[in-house]
Amino acid sequence: MTERSIKNIMPRSPEQFEIIRQERKRLIMDTALDLFAQEGYHSCSINKIASAAGISKGLLYNYFDSKEALLIAIISEGFEELIEQFDPNHDGVLSEDEMLNFLDQLFKILEENNQHWRLYYAVFFQPDVYELIKEQFRELFQQMIKLLTDYFTHHGVEEPENEALVFGTLLDGIAFNYVMYPELYPIETLKKYIIKKFAYLNK
């Protein structure tokens, strides 16, 4: 949706105003993700993002107070989308049903939004970007590893923390390679293999 089409919707209620605001925020984030991936984070200016989105720089600053804040919002959204599937009831315990749901949703998200995740990885792995975000996401990573370690401990795995690290690294690798080379990765077959190897169902 372009800025012009957004402007043509005149808000008549707080709810409608919020819809317009979220659509404009989505436009800014999608535009920035594309430019960060193509040109590099540090090479891309706020002016260029605003121009590509069809809005003023001042309006963009109503949504994000800096380019770094915009980057953090983009990267955070990706993490939060996955974490929400990982522990949907936020009880700090990973159940068998939640593990299965997480794996189902992970591969579904990658399949349905392949281009988005390709751009996401292109931005995430830029060295200057990683330096900006690594401390903010260290805690999220540790939380996920703890949930997995507890899950594998519960299922009697001999080295649960190592199992958690291997599991996480394997999923990262599959996700990255799948979005880059989807034709080479039979995603449903891989999902079934991972469930069989790591879900520890009926054990």
Beta strands, count: 0
Query: Which term fits the overall shape?
Result: elongated
Q: What proportion of the residues is helical, as a percent range?
A: over 70%
Q: What low-confidence regions span 5 or more consecutive residues with pLDDT below 50? A: none
Number of domains: 2
Averaged pLDDT, please? 86
**With helices defined by DSSP (H or I, 4 residues minimum), what is the helix count?**
10
Oligomeric state of the chains in view: single chain
Task: Outline the fold blueprint.
Layout: H1 3-7, H2 14-39, H3 46-53, H4 57-61, H5 67-86, H6 96-112, H7 114-124, H8 127-154, H9 160-180, H10 187-198
Helix pairs in contact: 2-3, 2-5, 2-7, 5-8, 6-10, 7-9, 8-9
Concise overview:
With 203 residues, the protein is mainly alpha-helical. It is 75% helix and 0% strand. The protein has 10 helices and no strands.
Explain what you see.
This protein has 203 residues and is mostly helical. The chain has two domains: 59 residues, Arc Repressor Mutant, subunit A; 124 residues. The protein is 75% helix and 0% strand. It is built from ten helices and no strands. Helix 5 packs parallel to helix 8, helix 6 packs antiparallel against helix 10 and helix 8 crosses helix 9. It is elongated, with a radius of gyration of 19 Å. The model has no long low-confidence stretch (mean pLDDT 86).
